[in-house]
Amino acid sequence: MADSSSAAAAAATLLERFSSGSSVKLLATALAVFAAILLVIDKLIAAPVDPREPPVVKGILPIIGHWISVNTSYPGVYEKLARQSKLPVCTIPVLNKKMYVINNANLVQSAMRNKTLEFGARIEEIGRIMGVDPVIVKRLVKENAVEEISRVTVSALSGDNLLSLNLNALKYIGNRFNEVRPGSPLQIDDVHHWARDLIGHATTRALYGEHSPFNNPELVDAIWTYESGLGKLQYGWISKFIAGKALEARKKIVTGLVGYYMRKLDQGETVSAVIKGRAEFWRSFGLSDIMLGAMDSLPASSTVNTAPSMFWLIVNVFAEPKYLSRVRQELEDGNVISITQEDGRRVATVNVPELGKSCHYLVACYRETLRTENTVTGSRTVTSKDTTITDHETGREYLLKEGVEVQWSASVMHKKAIWGEDSEQFNPGRWLKGTPEINKGSKESFVPFGGGKHLCPGRNFAFAELLGCLAVLAVGFEFEGVEVPDHAMLFSTSGLRSPIYGNKSSKATLKRRPGWEDVEWRYR
């Protein structure tokens, strides 16, 4: 208590001075008083830290410093913390709680493998964001339903089910490309919005089938409005005032989905295995069709990261001639596109599974896009009991206390020195070097899809969708006027940065490439 008494005494002294002096001195005194009060409160309510826990890194302001940074400077706060502290893992005070932040790749891998680290309380937070009854959310946690639905999802996104889903999405994309006729180029006002629309429609059509509620363009647009306010939907009644548009967008999406499930359209022949499997599970769990619509997270989770990934992949490749030339050469020289004659016209068919196996530079462009633009934050909570994680390079073990949240940022992992001196730059060639450093980096420091048992189940769907899309664009089309904009994190809940155009143009022209004007594009 000695520290608290001295801080209080200091605050009292400052208050005595508050009645005299210039306005600058008054302001400085007020700030000092405020800081002193925070210091006193910090001493009274700060969460205790065991010496075996990761070292503590204090914020600029006691109590609220890290809370402000985490909520206003995402993901820069993690990059700054890693750079300034130089600690592999640290403890940061957040109000009257604490949080562990991991900055070391092999510790991240250790955390992802640790079975004691779970989503825990985050499920309740996600439930609030989705507007799900808290009673139902607690039942989901208690009866382990989240683990079960994850298993259903993983199973439905593998093997023939995955290939069918990929081909259905790419069929839509191919049809959109085929609508661009020779001599009639497509004028695009905003490449980012165009990519969002393309991926949004293709993905939802593949998931929900021919009677998808997202055949209504307003519902696809609602996905992006919903995403923009996602982080503000966890504050109960306050959300009505700070995220009104996002709430209205969620209402539109849920209304469309409820109608879809009530009419049992999820049982149609063209519906994906993942939608059928999840709906069957939730009904067997006793949930109504209304709750199925409210709890369906796939419209957002399947698009909000894939669409911006597609955008950044397109602009980075098409804006740099040497990248585009190499991608084209690899595709044209490889055994991935077959040309046939059908009713007097040429048909070019892309072998989707072969793209990932044979087109190493194309895959490198995809991976580099995720490395440079993906900023997803991994988050787990230490559940059931205290646990430890081990830095296998130094042998040091760190205690993690039950109930404390653990976070790590892809933005930090993807800028590690292991990627080279040009880690801030887009350079697909780094993935083809095959050096021990890159091999190690790709295994430990490349974390756009999480890891462990929480590895993103839709990663292979997104992989095929994006490779297939870029393959046809690169070989069959010119994308004139494309520029790489600056980027920033506009939404803390987004997994990728958003474009900031500034003086650069968002417009582009999509037209048929000479020699490929008469081709109809298909996928197999």
TrEMBL record:
The keyword Hydrolase does not apply. It comes from the Eukaryota. The keyword Flavoprotein does not apply. It holds the Pfam family p450. Transmembrane segments: none annotated. One of its GO terms (molecular function) is heme binding. InterPro entries: CYP450_monoxygenase_sec-met (IPR053007), Cyt_P450 (IPR001128), Cyt_P450_CS (IPR017972), Cyt_P450_E_grp-IV (IPR002403), Cyt_P450_sf (IPR036396). Heme binds at C456. Its cofactor is heme. Belongs to the cytochrome P450 family. PANTHER family: P450, PUTATIVE (EUROFUNG)-RELATED. This is Prostacyclin synthase. It comes from Colletotrichum tofieldiae.
